[in-house]
Amino acid sequence: MFIEHFQITGIAVLQIFMLSAVGFLLVRKRFLSGRGLDDLSRLVMDVSLPVLIFCQLIKDFSFCLYPNWWVFPLISIAITVFGLVAGFLFVRFIDKEQEKLQFLSLVAFQNSGYLPLALVAALFPAQSLGEIFIYLFLFLMGFNLVMFSLGVHILNFHKEKKIKLSSLLSMPVLATLLSLVIVYFGINKLFPDSLIKPLRILGDTTLPLAMIVVGGNLAQINLKAINKKAVILLILVKMIILPLSGILFLRVFNISGLLGLLILIQLAMPSAVTVSTILRASNKEDILASQGIFITHLAALITVPAFLILYFSNFMIK
Hints:
Blueprint: H1 2-28, H2 34-60, H3 71-90, H4 97-108, H5 114-123, H6 129-155, H7 165-168, H8 171-184, H9 193-203, H10 206-220, H11 228-252, H12 257-268, H13 274-281, H14 289-314
Helix pairs in contact: 1-5, 1-10, 1-14, 2-6, 2-8, 2-9, 2-10, 3-4, 3-6, 3-11, 4-11, 5-6, 5-10, 6-8, 11-12, 11-14, 12-14
C-alpha cells in the first residue's frame, strides 16, 4: 500500500515540476524574456484560468449539490489566519523588521492555485476532477480576496496603504461570481455545446501554462546571500508544522475525502510566488521573499509527497 501511494504521489509531483522546469529553462536560456513571462502570466490569470473556472462551474456546479459552497472561501480565510498565527509564534527569531513582515507573508500565503490544480489533475483521472476543481475554485475566491488585501497591506510595510477594489475583484474572482449567478438563475442550461467546447479548449491550456509561469518566476529569483536562519525556520513552519497540524486537525474532527485532501494540500503548498510579485510592483526591497519562495518550492519536492502519502494511508477518499 505504501509503495502504491508513493508511486501515485511521487509521479504526480514529478510531473508538475517537470512542467515547471520547462518554464525555468525557457527563462534561464532567454527563450522567454521577463516581459514575455509577465504577458504569459497575465494570459493565464486574466484569460485561461477564468475561462476554466467558468466552464467548470456552469457544467458541474449546482446549489443543490453544493449547499455549503460558501464554506470554502471561509476555509481559505481560516487557513490564512492559521498561517499568520503560526508565523507570529516564530517571527520573534527573525532579526530585521522588513524580514519579519516578509516571513509572515511567506508563511501565511501559499501557492494556492496553480500547484494544487496541477497536483489534483495529476492525482485523479480526468472524469473525476469536476468536484475537486469546484472545491479549489471556491477556495480561491476567498484566498484572492485575502491575498490582495491583507497580503498587500502587510508587504507594503506601512498602515496607510489603501486597498483597491480592483485588486480584490481579480478575473478569477469575477469569473467565479459570474458563474454562480448564471447557475443560480439557470442560464447555464441555455449555453450550447458549440459555445462551451472552444472555451473549454482554451481553459484546458491553464495548467501547463501556469506551471511554465511558476518555473519562469523561479528562474527570475535573485538568490543573494541566503539567510540560513530565516529559510530553515520557514521550511520548518511552512512545509512541516502547518501540514502536520492539518493532519492532526483532520484526525481530531474526522474530516476525510476530497474536503480533507483540499485542506491538506493547501496547508502543504510552498509560499506564494505572488509575494515576490507584490514586492516588485510596490518597489519594495526583496530581502527574504525570493529566497523563501525558491527554497520552499524545492522543499515541496520532498514534503508534499510525504504528507500526501500520510493522508492517503490514513484517510479514505470518499
